[in-house]
Amino acid sequence: MAQTVLLNFEGESAGIKPNGYSPAGHPDVKFYDTVGAGLTIGKFTLGGIGTRTLAVWDDLDGSKLRIDFAKPMSALSFYFGNDDISYASTSDRAWLEI
Prior knowledge:
With 98 residues, the protein is mainly β. It has strands at residues 15-16, 29-33, 39-42, 53-56, 65-69. The protein has a three-stranded antiparallel sheet, with no helix packed on it. A two-stranded antiparallel ribbon has the order 2-5. The chain is globular.
């Protein structure tokens, strides 16, 4: 049976999260920082969606956000990017690899 699940981080406490972190109520989804331990939930800019967002917090080590699913998924939709121009440069890269 298909179901729609919306993951947001509004109910999560702000701060650094360990690799393998799952939002409350969603144990089948795990998030990782691929290089270090910079997985962070917070309100990073005035332009963000909501009061809590998830970020990999280190611009210098080449970290990526990895998401693992314990169950098969048939569709995904994401809001991602950098909504604060003061923290972006022309050399910044964004990609989605599935």
